Amino acid sequence: MSQAATKDNLHPRNLHRGRYDFAQLVAGSPELAEFVKVNEHGNETIDFADPSAVKALNRALLKHHYGIKDWDIPAQYLCPPIPGRADYLHYLADLLSESNGGNIPCGKSVRVLDIGVGANCIYPLIGHATYGWQFVGTDVDAAALKNAQRILDANQLSDAVELRLQESPTAIFAGVTYPDEFFDLTLCNPPFHASLAEARHGSQRKWKNLGKESNKHKNPVLNFGGQNLELCCEGGEEAFVSRMIEESVPGHSNCLWFTTLISKSSTLPHVYRALKYAGATDNRTIEMSQGQKKSRILAWTFMDKQQQRDWWKR
């Protein structure tokens, strides 16, 4: 996988559009040096199939671009690709600006709910560093939240990000949000797969794209890792997002835009029907691309244009 392949079509404000400056990254994070090598094109890169290398790169990127220190995740937890996660946030900032006179709202008055914040806490870290937003992060995994809290404490960010345990494995908003609180956005990186077998098949496909011999890795470790609940759920992303849409109805006046990532284009027809049934006033599908990986953001609201403008006057 060439380094340039990860840079295509990223958001114009994305700090990771250019080639990684490994000399600069290593200067701030010396532990990255052991993973840097020169590829056949004469460019410095890392082995993106090596989880340790990806983690070291993430640690260096977070420190250099976002001022995050002491970032780490336990073995086998999802190690997120930083450029793609930043893209999601930049597109959400654009979405908020539409009803705010074209200006991106920044600062602690903007509240964002991250469903499935994970052990990496990546969206709150980047979102707060870039736009100053306040976050509430939820997860069903107490161990993941413990690690996320450790990262927040190490970076004095506990006042900017609140973590909440979702005690019900089937609930999304219920039990972790309150009737009297408001969010400008929700975001989510849902479990995409319907089973572990499907997740492993996706892993094998990624290894093939990375130029690895898949027959040597019958159960390959995904280069970005992931626990069971991070990777799959019954019914896959179609069922998960449909449940999210259903649960968004009771809180329709408490949130401006509900959003989630959608990995598979085949999921869209079903969730469009779910949005129509739920009575969403408006919905958007925002295409994203990171090299060979194609994904999209699904966003919906129950507010008309005037209500969206009035939201910022509250």
TrEMBL record:
The answer to whether UniProt assigns keyword Hydrolase to this entry is no
Q: Name one GO molecular function term.
A: 23S rRNA (adenine(1618)-N(6))-methyltransferase activity
Q: Which top-rank group of organisms is this from?
A: Bacteria
Q: Which UniProt keywords apply?
A: Cytoplasm, Methyltransferase, rRNA processing, S-adenosyl-L-methionine, Transferase
Protein location = Cytoplasm
> Its GO CC terms?
cytoplasm
Its Enzyme Commission number(s) read 2.1.1.181
Per the UniProt entry, what is one GO biological process? rRNA base methylation
Its UniProt entry gives the catalysed reaction(s) as: adenosine(1618) in 23S rRNA + S-adenosyl-L-methionine = N(6)-methyladenosine(1618) in 23S rRNA + S-adenosyl-L-homocysteine + H(+)
Is Cytoplasm one of the keywords UniProt gives this record? yes
Q: Which InterPro entries match?
A: METTL16/RlmF, rRNA_lsu_MeTfrase_F, SAM-dependent_MTases_sf
Assigned protein family: Belongs to the methyltransferase superfamily. METTL16/RlmF family.
Recorded hits in HAMAP family, A to Z, give: 23SrRNA_methyltr_F
Q: What does this protein do?
A: Specifically methylates the adenine in position 1618 of 23S rRNA.
**What is this protein's name?**
Ribosomal RNA large subunit methyltransferase F
* Source species: Ferrigenium kumadai
